[in-house]
Amino acid sequence: MDNKKTEQLKEYTIKNESNHGLTTNQGLKMAEDEFSLKAGLRGPTLMEDFHFREKMTHFDHERIPERIVHARGVGAHGFFQLYESLEEFTRADFLTDPSKITPVFVRFSTVQGSRGSNDTVRDVRGFATKFYTDEGNYDLVGNNIPVFFIQDAIKFPDFVHAVKPEPNTDIPQGATAHDTFWDFVGQNPETAHMVMWAMSDRAIPRSLRMMEGFGVHSFRLVNAAGRAHFVKFHWKPVLGVHSMVWDEAQQIAGKNPDFHREDLYEAIDKGQYPEWELGLQLIPEEEEHRFDFDILDPTKLWPEEEVPVRRVGKMTLNQNVSNFFAETEQIAFHPGHVVPGIDFSNDPLLQGRLFSYTDTQLSRLGGPNFHQIPINRPVCPFHNNQRDGMHQMTIHEGQTSYHKNGLNANQPAPVPAEQGGYAHYQERVDGRKIRGRSDSFLDFYSQAKLFYNSLAPYEQEHVRMALRFELGKCKSSMVKTNAVALLNQIDRSLAQEVADHIGAPLPAENLEVKSDKKSPALSMANTVLLPDTKKVAIVRVGDPDVELFAEWTTALTEQKVNYTIVGPKLHDLPNPLKVTATYETTDPTLFDAVLLASSEPVIPPTALAFIETTFKHYKPVALALGNPQALDAVRIKADEAGVYDLNNSNIQAFINGVAQGRFWERNL
C-alpha cells in the first residue's frame, strides 16, 4: 500500500486502545453501559432507552447476509401434537386441542462460528422452533443450555463481540478458547453459571437429535379467564441426551465438518425420525418470589426437583428441506412471534430480544416483507394495512390502507380478545425509570456450584479438562488470573487444578459457595439409554463367516442400529458382506461402536486403528477373531468393560453395550 493511501485510511481510524469516555454515535457521553432503562429494577425495558436501541440496532446490522450469531445451521420440517389439553393454563389453540397436528420447522445451529465453521466445535447450540399454528406463527427460540451468559440485553453486543474471532486477526473460528471471551467472563461474573455448562459435555453433543432444548427465559401462559402462570419451555429428546468426548469432537471436525448436519439428514431420510417431548415448568404468578433465586433471571434455571417438568406433547421431524437457502437460511425467528395465551415476563434479556430480532431480519432479508418469504408465511390468512416496501410480493387491492376507515367499512378491523384477538396480559408495573440491576439478580455462583455438584465424576473431569484447554490457549496473564478468581467463587479445588495447569495464581482466600446441593436432572449420566439410530462400524478382515454376518446384521437392524461394513476396498458383493466404506473414506470417530470380524492370523494396522480409537473414546468394541492372539500387539483385552468377545457371547450383549454408549470405568 502506498503512503498516500495509508495517510488517507488514517483519517478513518479510531484507536479504541486510547483513553476515551464512552459515547453514543452522536457523541453523547453515557454514564451507564451495563443496564437498560427499566420501569423499576425488575420492571420492563422502556422504549425511550435511546442508548440501548442505538447500540442494539448497530449490532443487528453488522453482518450481511450471514446471521451475526447462529450462522451455521441446519433445519428440518415436522409436526407437533399435544397429549392433553392445557386449557387450565393457556388459551393457545395448539396447546388446548390434542387432536390438532401443528406443522413446525426447526433450525439447529452453533453460535460463534461462521457458516463455514465445523459442526462439532465446543459451543452452545441454537434450538429454534417455528409452530405454524391456526392462530399465527409462534416461535420458541432457544438453546440446548437452559441459561445464558448475561442478564441484560444491552450487554449482548458486548458478549458477542467478545466471543467472536478477535477483530485484529479474525482468529479463532468456532471457538471460545481465546483472550477476549475469557476477558469478558472475568469482567462479568454473571457468566459463571453458563460458563460451567459451556465447559461441560453439553457443548459437544453427539447428535442434534440427542440434545435437549430450552426456551431459556421465563414466559407467561395465560388462560381464557386471564389467570397467568410463569413458564419455562423444555424439549426432551426421546433418544436421551448424549455427547462426545473432546478428543473425538476435534477429530470429527477434521474428518467430517458436516457431521451433525449429515446425521440429521440421514436419520430423516431413513425414516428414523427425531422426536422430542415438549415439557413445561409452571409457577403460579402468586408464587413468583418463593424461591431462593429470581425466576426472571436468565442466568438461572428452575431446578426440576423444585419445579417438575410436565411433558405435554411430542414433536417429530419427518421431512428434510428441499432447498437449504430458501428454507434454512431464509427462515426468520423472533421470540415476539406469539399467539393468544402466550405472553412475556420482565426478564431484561428477553425484553431486549423482543426488539432485536425483527431489526436483524430487516438487514438480513432485505426489508420489512421478510414474512412473505414462503418459509416464513403463516398457514392462516393475514390482513393488515402494511403496504409496499422492498421485496413486496403481494398485490393489495382496494382503496384504503389505514385504520380507522369508513370507505371500506373499517376493514381489516381489530378482533376482540373473546373472539381470538391477542390481548397483552395486564400486569401492574410501578417503579422509577432507572438503569440498574435488581439485588435478586446478584447471586452469580450458587447455581454454577449446583451444576458442578450435580455432575457425575467423569463429567466433572471433562469440565476441568475443558477449562485447562480453554484457558491454556489464552495469552494474557490478567485474563487467566481473573478466570481463576471466578472459578474460586464456584469450587476451590476446581480453581486450584486449573491454576496449576495454566500457570495462574490461586487467590489466597477460599470464596467458593459452601453447598453440597445437587440436581440429578442436570447430569447426563441419568439420561435415557437406547440403541436406536446408533451407528456401528463392522470392520471386515479376510472372509468371515457369512452366516454369522447375516445373524449380526439382522439383529442390529431389528433393534434399529445402523451399520456400515468397512474394509480396505469396496466390494460389490451381495449382502451381508458388501463393503460400503473404506479406511480412507470413513473414520472410527464417526461411529458409536465397532465390531471387528477377522479370519486372518494378523490384523492390519488400519483395522487395529479402528478399534484402538473406539476404545480410547470409551465406546463399545466387539471382537470375532479367527486367531485369539491377533490382538496381542494392542492393549485391548476381552475382559475390559465394554469389550465383547463374540466367540463367547451373542450379539445382544454388544447391542446392550451400544445402548449404554460409553464405559467410563475403563482405566485408560
UniProtKB/TrEMBL annotation:
| InterPro entries hit by this protein | Catalase (IPR018028), Catalase_clade2 (IPR024712), Catalase_clade2_helical (IPR043156), Catalase_core (IPR011614), Catalase_haem_BS (IPR002226), Catalase_immune_responsive (IPR010582), Catalase_large_C (IPR041399), Catalase_sf (IPR020835)
Enzyme class per UniProt: oxidoreductase
**UniProt keyword Transit peptide present:** no
* Cofactor(s) needed for function: heme
Catalytic activity reads: 2 H2O2 = O2 + 2 H2O
Q: What is its EC number?
A: 1.11.1.6
Q: Which residue numbers delimit the Catalase core domain?
A: 23-411
UniProt keyword list: Heme, Hydrogen peroxide, Iron, Metal-binding, Oxidoreductase, Peroxidase
Family, similarity comment:
Belongs to the catalase family. HPII subfamily.
Task: Give a short account of what the protein does.
Answer: Decomposes hydrogen peroxide into water and oxygen; serves to protect cells from the toxic effects of hydrogen peroxide.
Q: What is this protein called?
A: Catalase
Organism lineage reads as: Bacteria, Bacillati, Bacillota, Bacilli, Bacillales
